[in-house]
Amino acid sequence: MRTAIVGAALLVAGAVAAAIGILPPSAVFELWDRVWPILLFVLAITVVTELAAAAGLFTVIAQRTARWGRGRAWALWLLVALFATLSTIFLSLDTTAVLLTPVVVVLARHSGLDPLPFALTTVWLANTGSLLLPVSNLTNLLAQHAMGDPSPLSFAARMAAPAVVAIVVPLAVIFVLYRRSLLGRYGTGSEVDVDDPVLFRWSAVVVGALVPLLVSGLPVWMPAVGAAIVLGAVFMVRRRGVLRLGLLPWQLIVLASGLFLFIEALHAVGLGTVLAAVSGEGESPLALLRLALTGMAGANAIDNLPAYLALEPSAGSPLRLAALLIGVNAGPLITPWASLATLLWHQRLTSMGVEIRWRRYVVLGAIVAPLTVVLSTLALALVA
């Protein structure tokens, strides 16, 4: 409920800005046109994951993954890291946050392990792992256009070195933090039978078809909505009681809507101008670090997408745009609202009864985010 209250307050603040003329109606309509596909995707993909979880799909995936770890917690953790990295690179950070989080939580519980290092690995890599390809992050798609539309391979060639660093650094921090539990062993646990094989098969087919459709070039809300409709229809026939209003992430939708509107109002009063002045100019290593760290600060203050849009005009070159992407992609690990993926991840954890205090998340992020951004930017400067 606290999430909804904060979102409602932000909506009211944004509405007041629009009512008194700070935010013109054209800007509000342009904002709505930009964000409604994102919000619809969030709503639909959340329904898909809730229904797939109810059908036992994630439990079965977790059971099979646990076997591959062969009882070694560190091996299981590295498998999770690999899945999170590949999912983020090819399916986008938001998809990783929604689809992989329930898998890793069930996996850890099934193996008798602490779910927090696995959950933290998922959300950190969902952000830091989104540097390599244009499809990995919406900011990358925007930057690809600003760079002159290089091919995905050319884009990846420029971003490869910082992308590797941005993946390795958070993993190293997590291993140091949780080394005792990760160096232990686990039991695979007993196999859990699927209650309804028909629901399970439908869920497996729908999610299996959804994954490639999310990278097919279609707007991602389309396959997500289609998958939610199909699974909803199957559950209506097989297990109607699962279908309830609680499946809809309405609190998250309210918060995201309020955040977008409030940030747009801040743009109208000159936020972008301030950020551009702070970011400086030039392509020396220090200049690139200044821009990347400004992007990181902006992302954690106002969310990574508006931070990118505010700073894009001051980037001015492909190399500086790459540094900006490091800041807004690998840097939003401190505040809960720094990226939509983080909010989606936390919503999935809450729905599964896993608690992580935001204070602890902020403290850990304040350590790993600057370290990741600085080392990744230096890697970019080194190979430029």
TrEMBL record:
Pfam families: CitMHS (PF03600). One of its GO terms (biological process) is response to arsenic-containing substance. Its main location: membrane. It is found in: Cell membrane. Residues 5-325 form the Citrate transporter-like domain. The keyword Magnesium does not apply. It is a multi-pass membrane protein. It comes from the Bacteria. One of its GO terms (cellular component) is plasma membrane. The chain crosses the membrane at residues 35-62, 74-93, 155-178, 198-215, 221-238, 250-278, 321-340, 361-383. InterPro entries: Arsenical_pump_ArsB, Cit_transptr-like_dom. Keywords: Arsenical resistance, Cell membrane, Membrane, Transmembrane, Transmembrane helix, Transport. GO terms for molecular function: arsenite transmembrane transporter activity. Belongs to the ArsB family. Belongs to the CitM (TC 2.A.11) transporter family. This is Arsenical pump membrane protein. It comes from Microbacterium hydrocarbonoxydans. The lineage of its organism: Bacteria, Bacillati, Actinomycetota, Actinomycetes, Micrococcales.
